[in-house]
Amino acid sequence: MAKDRRLVIFGDSAFAEVAFEYFQHDSPYEVVAFAVSREYRKRDTLFDRPVIDFEEVAARFPPDRCEMFVALVYNQLNRVRRRFYDEARALGYRLASYVSPRAFVWRNVRMGDNCFVFEDNVIQPFVELGSNLILWSGNHIGHHSRLASHSFFASHVVISGFVEVGEACFFGVNAAVANNLTIGADCLVGAGALVTRSLPAGSLVKGRACTPEEETTWKRFGVPPP
């Protein structure tokens, strides 16, 4: 694949390392640097690329020559990622997106910038995705649904058809939302939660946590413990 675009990744966390792998080895982008806020920068290089102060990024890797991807997760209900998304745009950067070729994205899906769509996502017809969205692997986004900007979807989330999701939400692993519902902004839907009615903004929904039975598997199946 030809490398005809240059990319700076904001961040040097585990997600930044993952983003580097996908952009560098599965996209037309050449990752040229990482940028971190000066007060949090702890190293000078990562994957043989410089790690520089974000405060100096525009001078060293100007926006007329490079694009940027903000590789942050859901800290403070996505507020930190949103802040640096806004700051990068204010500096004049074009925000890059990555969509895995192993994801199913129908032809008329609309998507904003700074989105990361991992492998095995299914995004059905007439879906509208905002900007600054992270869809980890294996999610299902049903037809005619609309996801506003700045949210994070962990793996194997199901958003059924005709669902409206507000800004800056978080959906944990295996969360599911029934069709024709509205999820307000700033909602947190925990791992394994099943949402069957609309949620007002700021809702916190916990999945049902399981606890081990008093009877052990050794007793149930009549086998000795190791």
Keywords:
Rossmann fold; 23 strands; 6-stranded parallel beta sheet; 4 helices; UDP N-Acetylglucosamine Acyltransferase, domain 1; about 15% helix; globular; about 230 residues; 2 domains; alpha/beta; 7-stranded parallel beta sheet
Provide structural commentary:
With 226 residues, the chain is of the alpha/beta class. It has two domains: 5-90, 3-Layer(aba) Sandwich (Rossmann fold), CATH 3.40.50.20; 98-202, UDP N-Acetylglucosamine Acyltransferase, domain 1 (3 Solenoid). It contains four helices and 23 strands. The protein has helices spanning 14-25, 57-60, 75-90, 217-221, and strands at residues 5-10, 29-36, 45-46, 49-53, 67-70, 98-99, 104-105, 110-111, 116-117, 122-123, 128-129, 134-135, 140-141, 146-147, 152-153, 158-159, 164-165, 170-171, 176-177, 182-183, 188-189, 194-195, 204-205. It has a seven-stranded parallel sheet with strand order 6-9-12-15-18-21-23, with helices on one face. The protein is globular. The termini are far apart.
Total individual domains: 2
Please, what is the CATH homologous superfamily of the largest domain? Hexapeptide repeat proteins
Task: Based on Cα principal axes, name the global outline.
Answer: globular
The fold-level CATH name of the largest domain is UDP N-Acetylglucosamine Acyltransferase, domain 1
Note the beta-strand portion. 25-35%
Please give the oligomerization state of what you see. single chain
Got a strand count?
A: 23
Mean pLDDT: 97
Q: Which value, in Å, is the CA radius of gyration?
A: 20 Å
SSE arrangement, N to C: EHEEEHEHEEEEEEEEEEEEEEEEEEH
CATH class of the largest domain: Mainly Beta
Distance between the termini: 51 Å
CATH architecture of the largest domain: 3 Solenoid
Structural class: alpha/beta
**Spans of 5+ residues with little confidence (pLDDT < 50)?**
none
* Major β-sheet annotation: 7 strands, parallel
Q: How many individual helices?
A: 4
Helix content range of the residues, please? 10-25%
- Describe the strand arrangement of the main beta sheet, using strand numbers: 6-9-12-15-18-21-23
